[in-house]
Amino acid sequence: MEILARSCVRRRRPVASSWAAIAILGVALGAGAATAEQPTPSAGSQTPSRAAAPAAAPAPAMKATPVTKVTVRSLPPAQFHGALEGARKMGPVILLDVREPSEITVGQIEGAELMPWNSGVFARDHLRLARDRPVFVYCAHGARSMKAAEQLVAEGWKDVTSLAGGYEDYRAAFPPH
Prior knowledge:
Layout: H1 2-10, H2 15-28, E1 37-41, E2 48-52, E3 73-75, H3 77-90, E4 94-97, E5 113-114, H4 121-125, E6 135-138, H5 143-154, E7 160-163, H6 166-173
Parallel strand pairs: 3-7, 4-5, 4-6, 6-7
Antiparallel strand pairs: 1-2
């Protein structure tokens, strides 16, 4: 910076305006103007002394847009069952079983639609699901249903619940009739 200041003094340009331009450029580049210094020539010397630069004008205020973060609810079997039954009383719901067809021989939650995760059926068909309905997702142990639920939320579904522990834990808490 001193080299620039000396060259400005030798060329008889106003040093203050050169340093102001550097301070503005620093603000534009994110360096901040509070640390910029403005040299002023001292009497009879080519070496400038240092003084604080004037503060740059504050950036115009931007309106903050509220960010609503939607997350997946992961509920244990008793809470999942209660939330599912409560939602069913309020209106239509989507209940997805993301296990493979061979896994449903042990049972299935009543009203579930089979949309297997591993074989790609979920990836292919999930976009046809209504976004304005609550979605409940389960698998055998909870990992695939959580992945499916996270994908739904990432793609715009607002009310998505995954069964923690999967159908194995659900069946232990609520044995099939």
